[in-house]
Write a structure and sequence with these properties.
single chain; alpha+beta; Aspartate Aminotransferase, domain 1; 6 strands; 34% helix
Length: 161
């Protein structure tokens, strides 16, 4: 079966993620994709077939494994938090891209606040990572405003002279 996406398409999509870097810490034929030094994807060939390890929420990981024969527990990774995708199977390209996005989001959301803010400043598409400003607190009414509000009922219509 032909792969849903080519290795070149996969690499391009992974590196298009804001601040994504490709490194080779294990072997020269095993590219690792990181953001701020944290791995979100790892690509490798096993038994002549292309595979991709991606981080996943544990509850979603189990569901995906039951739905798709191309998804299994992470190869050489923490089985609870990582899935391995067999890229040679019938897994739709849109699902592969969705799972890459999910993995990337899991990693970036758990980065330290200062790192998230730095990434948000560098990459407009990551602005959601920066902490949103707190809702402004209501200031206490001044004495003039307080006296007006206590003598006037805003729900009552007033007769004008």
């Amino acid at each position: 079966m032909a792969a849903a996406i080519t290795p070149a398409q996969l690499r391009h999509y992974l590196l298009a993620k804001p601040a994504a870097e490709e490194t080779f810490p294990f072997r020269p034929d095993v590219p690792v994709y990181q953001v701020a030094g944290k791995i979100f994807a790892l690509s490798f060939v096993k038994n002549g077939q292309a595979h991709l390890n991606l981080k996943c929420e544990p509850s979603q990981a189990e569901i995906l494994r039951s739905l798709f024969t191309e998804i299994s527990a992470g190869y050489h990774m923490h089985k609870k938090h990582w899935n391995t995708l067999d890229l040679e199977g019938e897994l739709p390209a849109c699902e592969i891209y969705r799972l890459i996005d999910h993995s990337y989001d899991l990693i970036t959301q758990r980065l330290p606040k200062s790192t998230r803010q730095h990434l948000a400043l560098q990459h407009a598409s990551l602005v959601h990572l920066a902490d949103k400003p707190k809702t402004p607190t209501l200031k206490p009414a001044t004495s003039v405003e307080s006296s007006k509000s206590s003598t006037q009922n805003p729900h009552r219509t007033q007769n004008k002279p």
